[in-house]
Amino acid sequence: MTESTSTSIMAPSGARRLTLGWDSNWKTSNPEIAFAGDAQSRSRMSLSDHISNYGRIPTGFTYSLVSDSLRVANLTGRGGAKFPFYKKLAAVYQADRKKGCYIVANGAESEPLSIKDSTLLKTNPHLVIDGLVMVAEVLSAKGVYIYVKDKEAHSAVNAAIRERKERGFNEAKISIVDAPATYVAGQETSVIRRIEKGPALPKFSIDRVAVSGVKGQPTLLSNVETFAHLGLILRFGADWYRSGRSGFDSGSRLVTVSGAVGRPGLYEVSSGVSVGEILREAKAQSVRAVLVGGYFGGWLNVRDESELKLTYDDVTLAEKKLSIGAGILGVLSKETCPVVEAASIVDYLTEQSAGQCGPCVYGLPEISTAFARIALSSNVDRGISELKAVIPLVERRGGCQHPDGVIAHVRSTVAAFGDEIKLHKAGKCSVASSSHQSMLLPKKSQGNLAAASGR
Amino acid sequence: MKIVIDPTRCQGHGTCAALLAEYIEMDKWHYPILSRNQLKDSHLEAAKKAVQLCPELAIKIIE
After folding, report:
1. Is residue A455 helix, strand or coil?
2. A349 in the same domain as A299
3. Do A378 and A412 share a domain, yes or no?
4. What DSSP element (H or E) covers A144?
5. Which end of chain A is flanked by fewer CB atoms within 10 Å, N or C?
């Protein structure tokens, strides 16, 4: 890498780290929250703009320097597992790499409510590539892959790679692999199989991906946003990243806000902001409930405004048994019954099973049916006793996280909405309307819960 | 030694449960539940047979 600039570069601050180039609409009333819109109309940042914004791409890192920086920065994986990234890196570094190792940025983003990864790849692919080539150098990786969700992300990454080649960057070669639009395509082992030119379906493995991933070799696999942060941490340092803050969630993060809000889309938020502050920028009103983390996440029952004072970090959210997950906040207003919405999501997830493992194939429809009885106020007691009987037969028996994610959603609903379920027991519902229009499911996947309950 | 079953391959034929009743029971959909997985030496032959006879090659013995 020979790129140099004569001007000195200021490290980006506050909430505009990954969104620095999105110069127009980012303004909000809160300097700790940046708005990036739906990003559909935004164009890709060129390599020259990227370098003039963030500075040249540093090179010549040692493993210990990278590992120390990531540990001090407290960078955690941004795909939902919140695992400390330096530990993941260490697992790959210490594995048997004689036959080479691989690096994979997972941009499958199979959560329909998320747009962060595809937006990052469409608008600033160089940030992700920077992080990838830096670790590729440290690990002497044999192959580097970016797993992308759609055509737009594919062509943006492709154009970025071409630009770097034309500039004569001497760095790891990157291959692009397309993810199919299925929910399970983003599971770690699905990604590995797809890269190996197989179907994007989960695979059973005794070893972790860090030890045995692509072609059976050690593989560093993380979410695309993780690599974007990494590229900045190694430029500006761990202390910059923490900006004087402590705890697991230092730095900024990308959040997709959807549902009953006036300004849905992608936000970048500094650590320390509250859920309420984010929802205020998204123009949410009369909030009934928030789905935090995504379909495999959990529910926040908003009995009154004070419930939204919760700080948006994993330490605080854990007290409510919630997690940032894939950076999703799905908002329901008082016009939607949260239990009906949850049951619709569970029904969708049931249909999204890979169909490989018996407990998932037979168990999820039973869970969905039982849950629909609760949601439709048809027979709550029966629904609950059926759930109690079937969940132990499904939990931890699948070849991937899918069935356990569904069970987590069911448990969270039951734990959060005791008040609503009590109404349903009496054959009522807090929402008068008999027709439920889902706020948080993809349009084409609006299912029929009544059909699920009779399945 | 441990018994492992790959749930993505298993089609619930039940051969393993028949041979290794002390370790494997069948659920109501006729899929195996491993009640324990640490294999005793005295059951090694039965376990090897289960590995050979599984039509889906879903069961393995690992160190």
Report:
1. coil
2. no
3. yes
4. strand A143-148
5. C
